[in-house]
Amino acid sequence: MSMNSPEQSQLGKSSAYVDQYDAGLLFPIPRATKRAEIGVTGQPVFFGADLWTAFELSWLNPKGKPQVALAHITVPAESTHIVESKSFKLYLNSFNNTRFADAAAVRERLESDLSASVWNGGAVRASVGVVLVLPEQFDKEPIQELDGLSLDRLDIDCDRYQPAPELLRCADHENPVTETLTSNLLKSNCLVTGQPDWGSVRISYSGPQIEQGGLLQYLVSFRNHNEFHEHCVERIFMDIWTHCKPSRLSVYARYTRRGGVDINPWRSSHPGVLPPSVRTARQ
């Protein structure tokens, strides 16, 4: 099995746009490399998934007539690999002039190819989920902001723009709390191209109360950090888990789309129902 690195992908390079179906365009990247940086070398302490939305999906029906749909894609966090996002967009483009019997055939092809890619040819222990939203369902796609108390109301000084977990502080000697906090000020940069990635984040936890000003400063500290969405969310989870020691924790980020695709990672200390894949106004 290959050990693909982001630098070997099509990110930041001129690419030929293939419009005939080609699953070989998918470029898997191992999760283990970045997880090792945050102290995750064995079984992760978190569960979760990466919720993708593809807004630019099209193919031809048997008569050659173009069809369009949205796709909600769920990638299990236990998979050994992620799919590099530009390769995923190139892969979707390869459907553009390819004939499929119907939408069900498209969904099955996406599910099969993506499942194989995120396990990099190994045994598929948890499949990628794919739901297609057809045009007659478009007006049922809601827009909703993340629920919780906004940290952005705080008037704080910010001068750290690389991840600074030492900014995280909690009230160890007071009664534990359960709360959900949100921010629209998450920004990081693509690991390879340096292009900005804009996101909103929701942090739900039970345990020693986290000092809100320090948490917001910590989230802002990702502003000049270069890392993929999935890795940023896992870093946030592990920093809070390690420094604040909550009994329960979930971190959910929704990033604005690029090239017709958004990526929304969710990580939780306990298995549970996935958050609804509902886009925010900025997405």
Strand content: 25-35%
Mean pLDDT: 94
Low confidence ranges: none
The helix tally amounts to 5
- Assign a percent range to the helix content: 10-25%
Quaternary structure type:
single chain
Query: In angstroms, what is the radius of gyration?
Result: 19 Å
N- to C-terminal distance: 35 Å
Query: What is the global morphology?
Result: elongated
Could you say which structural class the secondary elements and strand pairing correspond to? alpha+beta
Helices and strands, in order, run as: EHEEEHHEEEEEEHHEE
The major β-sheet equals: 8 strands, mixed
Q: Taking strands numbered 1, 2, ... along the chain, how are they ordered across the largest sheet?
A: 5-3-2-12-11-9-8-6
User: What's the count of strands?
Assistant: 12
Describe this structure in words.
With 283 residues, the protein is an alpha+beta fold. It has five helices and twelve strands. The longest helix is centred in the middle third of the chain and has 16 residues, at 103-118. The model has no long low-confidence stretch (mean pLDDT 94).
